[in-house]
Amino acid sequence: MQHLKNGLLAFLLVGFTTHLALADEPKSDNPYTQNYKQRFAASKPTAEAPHVFRGTNRETDYQHLLEDGYDQMGTSGFQAGDVDPEQLGAQAQKVHADLALVYITSLGKQSMDAKIAAAKEKALKMAKPETERGDGEGLLMEFPELRYDYYATFWMKLPPPVLGLHVRDRKEDEDQPGVPVVAVIKGSPAAGSDIRKDDVVLKVAEVETNNGDTFVQTVRSNAGKTVEILLLRDDILVSKMVTLSAK
User: What is the pTM assigned to this prediction?
Assistant: First the structure.
């Protein structure tokens, strides 16, 4: 699974709102929580416990989940020793995700330099009077021989879409009109009209769509109507009449 680093992902859904996370939330010792980067927040808790899986391929998993009607709420990446799998589920539940995937890569044994630095840090802490030590500073700290790279993605299932396209904004060096299609949601009006990944949406209902915001606003304003969508496919103009879902 990979991020769309070169553009903003736009999506169409029904009844979706966002809100900011609380700034005064207490610090967690869960590494998935400590390293969480939010794209958007869920509007309400999920009805069921989140599903947690080991990912296989970041790029293909990302594409498949977009097509299945999910969108990525956030990510978490860090390096550590063994991490309890339940901590991934705890973070997924915390952000009200429907699904979470984790990718784990072994980094091999911890270097001798890291062990020496850890030993020095422990020695400095133990040299303090017991009354000046923080909680747990008098305890022996064990550092794992093996370390891993963890990368987790958190997903929310979207409501039925008005059109069903994920698009991205053009990159700064792309001097071309329209918004490229990143993914088509299965069973959506777009899928039923044979709009495809890598098509470029030039117009919706005669409105030029040169960025994701204009695309989203135009589709939403025409919800429930049958509109013409003008596409560029392999340098050929293609016109599609699509009946959009009502809001």
Answer: 0.73
